[in-house]
Amino acid sequence: MQQPLLKYPDPRIRLISGNVRFFNETLHDIIEDMTDTMKAEGLDALTAIQIGIQYNVIVLKENGEYVPYVNARIVRHSGQAVETERTPYYENMSVDVPRYTEISIVYEDPSGEMRTRVFEAEAARVFQHQLDYAFGSTFVDRVSKEVKKQIDDHLEFGLVKDSRDPDATSETCPSVFYRDYFRRGYKYTMLAIAGTFVTPFFVSEAARSTIYTVDKYGLLLTLALIVGYFFYAEYETKKYKQCTSCQTGNIIGTLAIAFAQLLIVTAGVYLWMAP
Fold this sequence. Notes:
This protein is an alpha+beta fold.
């Protein structure tokens, strides 16, 4: 059944959507209502909170089919581009928004089966736009403070306040997170260590012993950078709590990958590089 879309200045758009716990007939009814609303409104994407349902459910129109994504989280991302976005919530308004150009997500289907998916280009942008709603954000949270101030002055009732802290103005999502410097640091350090794995074919035993020692210090540096990433990511999670890329699930996924890579490189150092 078609449901009315939330429109500005309805404050419910700022509610954080809870995860779906029961994959039952109620969930199927929600997805059916979302699909009917999309068809009636001519939409290609919809998040449940946009029709006032506080569940983390997104439906995308893909090749004529309406595909649901339940409890979605971004676990990896890369690239960035700025494009103009619009939304039925803020009618007659468009904003240039920075987004990742490629994302990897984990989600559940309507039966509760865990799945993964990679989105690129425009599809990645659309999904991030919808996921913002699930976490109580809108695209205006991703623009600079100056642009946000202009939008606030332009709107009749000003921007809808963050439902988690109605008396405060939340920090906007930055285009660059400082935690990414830690991530690049440990990534490049591990690549440098892995690059030394070819040296035993070309150097003497004495040189190999020196490289082995340097690699061990490199492993310690890598571990320190990963730990630094964790603590700074936690800080940014609290500071930019409206950003979907700051969710704990994303950070845990990145850390899991980092530790797996570190384990592989460590094994290479001690099993191959040791003189």
